[in-house]
Every structure is written in C-alpha cells, then in structure tokens.
C-alpha cells in the first residue's frame, strides 16, 4: 500500500480508500515512536519542498516545516506577498515552474480548484493544507489522536458541533464515513453541510456501515458521542459575520453540561485550534466586549480538562504530515 501512495497528491479525503488513509495513520504512529526514541528516519534527504500559503497558519506551516526538515528536506516558504498566483501569473504557469524546481508542494489557501490545478500541472506531489472546502491533513491528526485515546476509531461516534458547513466539518463528515466512524453534525439548519457533501458522506457510509446524522437537535446529536469536536464559529475571512454567528451558535457552545449529555464517562474533546476559550487573545477580548462572554465555542474548563487532547492533536499534525511526505515524496523503501 505504501508503494501505491508514492508520488500521489493529497487533495481531498474522498480520493483515498479506507486502506490508504489507515496506512498513513499507522505509519504516523511508527514515525512518532521513532521521533520519541530518536531513531533516524531521514526519508527526504536531498528533497526540496515548497509551502505556498495564501492564508496565515501556525500548526500547518510549523508541521510541514518541521516534518520535512527532520526527515532531511529543505523548505521554502512562499506567502501571499511572495506569490504572483492568479495575479500576474496563472496557477498553471506557477505550477509548471515550481514543479521543475521542487519535489513537492504544500498549498494552504482559498479555492479547491487552485490546489487541484497545482497538482494537475506541477508533475510533483501536492498536499492540501486547507482550502475553503476541505482540510485533509487535519483529518490524519484527528483520527490518529482518537486511535491513541481509545485504541481504535472504528465504530466510535464522533460529533462535530458548531458551524457544520465549514471545511473541518466537511472533512470530518467524509473521512468518518470512509473509516467506519459514526459521524454526527450538530448545527443550526442554516449551517448544515451542503446537500452534495451530505450525499457523498451517506454513500460512503453505506460501504463502511457507519452512521451519518445531521441535526439541529443538540440532545439527539450529542447523546452517545465518544468524541466531541468543535471549531471557531467564524472561519478565516468571515470575521465580519461574528455577531450573526454568535446569535446562531450561542446554544451550541461546548461546556460541561453538553459533555454530560453524551452519557459517557470517557468522552474525548478535540479542537483543531485556535480556540476562543478565554480572554487572553484580541478575539477573546472583542467577544467579551461585544457579547459579555468569557469564551465562545468552548468553555475554558472543558478546553483545559483531562479529556481534552487538543495539544496532543496539534502535535500529531507533525507526525501525520511526516507520514504523508514520506510516502508520497520520500525514499521510504
């Protein structure tokens, strides 16, 4: 299976089978062990990786940079001010040029078509670090974290609560359905995933025999959940919708009462970060000023609880991206 993944791009989850995704997750476990025990795994010696980022990033940029360099590659970062992408130079022309110089390209930006075109024209592996529609590298870290916590993800019930039509919700919905994880999306009707994404997930879930539930009923969606997952209520570029989102989502906050509704005593809490859980950020202070609340999508006590594994989840971005780079671009054989 590892050889089959060699030279492949990683653009969206639906392009991959359950076996292929599991291969990446299992390799990440192996590479995490090697990292912790200082066992060399320099599968990218002599490789050159480009990071094309239209959007700001903490975890994705850090994970790609550290993962690549620890495996022996050199990394060049090209931010939105460094690129002519779509302005003076087409995506096709950019892809051809970069593909002639680099061994792989990570993209983080807006349009899914951009990352698809980079892969089409560059002739090197391209990895989607986030677009408006999908966030596939995040999924590898998420399901690795669930497996570490429970020993498995198959048959577990993962519930995403919040903005159900953002890229993280889309990716969780589809990836869960591929991997055989029961997936609930709990959101106001106005923020339900698109019908196209819902149908894709339901079709995939028939094959894996998992359950898909899309609901605005909090109690129905939360009960029986093994994993509670949330995200910021306004994605990047949507900050002008903050007041509207607060009114829509204020009842969908993850707090201890909501965790108790699961009926479980070993619930796992996940968040892809950043999180508005206290007043120690400009956004947290703004929300307090506007709405008089000390937190938004998750309360501070839940965020800092023993069952919250958000920082383990963040670290796992690096280990899973190592696995992705090693299999698609490296000399792992």
Automatic annotation (TrEMBL):
Q: In which pathway does it act?
A: Amino-acid degradation; L-arginine degradation via ADI pathway; carbamoyl phosphate from L-arginine: step 2/2
Domain annotation Aspartate/ornithine carbamoyltransferase carbamoyl-P binding: ranges: 10-148
Its keywords, alphabetically, are:
Arginine metabolism, Cytoplasm, Transferase
What Enzyme Commission number does this protein have? 2.1.3.3
Give the matching Gene3D superfamilies.
Aspartate/ornithine carbamoyltransferase
Q: Pfam families given for it?
A: OTCace (PF00185), OTCace_N (PF02729)
What EC class is this? Answer: transferase
Q: Record's Gene Ontology CC terms? A: cytoplasm
PROSITE patterns from the xrefs? CARBAMOYLTRANSFERASE (PS00097)
Q: Name one GO molecular function term.
A: ornithine carbamoyltransferase activity
Compartment(s) where it occurs, according to its Swiss-Prot or TrEMBL record? Cytoplasm
Q: Which domain of life is it from?
A: Bacteria
The answer, when asked if Transcription is one of the entry's keywords, is no
What this protein catalyses is:
carbamoyl phosphate + L-ornithine = L-citrulline + phosphate + H(+)
Positions of the Aspartate/ornithine carbamoyltransferase Asp/Orn-binding domain: 154-327
PANTHER family in UniProt? ORNITHINE CARBAMOYLTRANSFERASE, CATABOLIC, ORNITHINE CARBAMOYLTRANSFERASE, MITOCHONDRIAL
The task this protein performs is described as: Reversibly catalyzes the transfer of the carbamoyl group from carbamoyl phosphate (CP) to the N(epsilon) atom of ornithine (ORN) to produce L-citrulline.
Family statement drawn from the similarity comment of this UniProt entry? Belongs to the aspartate/ornithine carbamoyltransferase superfamily. OTCase family.
Q: What is this protein called?
A: Ornithine carbamoyltransferase
Native species: Mammaliicoccus vitulinus
Q: What is the lineage of its organism?
A: Bacteria, Bacillati, Bacillota, Bacilli, Bacillales
């Amino acid at each position: 299976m590892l050889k089959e993944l060699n030279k492949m791009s990683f653009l969206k989850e639906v392009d991959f089978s359950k076996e292929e995704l599991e291969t990446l997750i299992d390799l990440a476990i192996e590479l995490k062990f090697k990292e912790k025990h200082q066992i060399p795994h320099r599968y990218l010696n002599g490789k050159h990786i480009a990071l094309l980022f239209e959007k700001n990033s903490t975890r994705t940029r850090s994970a790609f940079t550290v993962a690549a360099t620890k495996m022996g590659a050199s990394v060049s970062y090209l931010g939105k001010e460094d690129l002519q992408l779509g302005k003076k130079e087409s995506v096709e022309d950019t892809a051809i040029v970069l593909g002639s110089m680099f061994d792989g390209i990570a993209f983080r930006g807006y349009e899914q078509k951009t990352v698809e075109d980079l892969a089409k024209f560059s002739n090197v592996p391209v990895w989607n670090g986030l677009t408006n529609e999908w966030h596939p590298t995040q999924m590898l870290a998420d399901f690795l974290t669930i497996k570490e916590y429970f020993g498995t993800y198959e048959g577990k019930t993962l519930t995403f609560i919040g903005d159900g039509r953002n890229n993280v919700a889309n990716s969780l919905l589809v990836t869960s359905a591929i991997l055989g994880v029961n997936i609930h999306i709990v959101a106001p009707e106005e923020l339900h995933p698109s019908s196209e994404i819902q149908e894709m997930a339901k079709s995939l879930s028939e094959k894996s025999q998992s359950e898909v539930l899309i609901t605005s009923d909090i109690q129905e969606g939360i009960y029986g959940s093994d994993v509670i997952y949330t995200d910021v209520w306004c994605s990047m570029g949507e900050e002008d919708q903050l007041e509207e989102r607060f009114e829509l989502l204020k009842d969908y906050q993850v707090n201890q009462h909501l965790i108790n509704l699961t009926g479980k005593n070993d619930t796992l809490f996940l968040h892809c970060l950043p999180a508005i859980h206290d007043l120690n950020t400009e956004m947290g202070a703004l929300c307090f000023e506007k709405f008089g609340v000390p937190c938004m999508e998750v309360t501070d006590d839940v965020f800092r609880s023993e069952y919250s594994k958000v920082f383990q989840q963040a670290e796992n971005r690096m280990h899973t991206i190592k696995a992705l780079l090693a299999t698609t671009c490296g000399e792992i054989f």
